[in-house]
């Protein structure tokens, strides 16, 4: 009896975050490739261009390089997850398998709010319609998994420590519930109503990109539509 051919895996588009380059997604790309996934590390200008320009350019790259009859998976880190949301809403011609966001502030970023008020140039055009919490809603039929980190180390830590002190003054219970973060993004900011699954891992905002368990959970979700517990 002939053996059944293994199911072809989707192309995975990897999208980096603010102030990053495609190099940051390379460790995750290599782990995906080791499991049989083809990958593409999408490059965009996070400071110079807004979210809508960057999702449009992803659409243009796919139009030039990918058959729309073949499904794709999407994995985005931080701001990259918001680009995924805009792309899903505005370019429905593409067949989407599953999506995973890593440390993405889906409801907006307190840290970005502080930086925007102090020096808007640091976040550039990525603030409006994205980090300000006004990203486009996701289509309901898309399978999305959300990974958050709760290891509080990173460049955004001073802002979040200050914000946590404000929460403590307002309500001790509110501070206890909302203070967990990955050094840049609060766990509560990663919540997405339309997500199929959400998991919190002991990693920092940038460290999650090189973490083996994060990669394992990304792969598991792309293959199964849920995280492994």
TrEMBL record:
DUF676 domain residues = 7-111
On the tree of life, the source organism's domain of life is Bacteria
Q: Name one GO molecular function term.
A: hydrolase activity
**Stretches that traverse the bilayer:** none
Keywords in UniProt for this one?
Hydrolase
SUPFAM superfamilies the UniProt entry points to: alpha/beta-Hydrolases (SSF53474)
Protein name (record): Alpha/beta hydrolase
Q: Which organism is it from?
A: Psychrobacter pocilloporae
Q: What is the lineage of its organism?
A: Bacteria, Pseudomonadati, Pseudomonadota, Gammaproteobacteria, Moraxellales
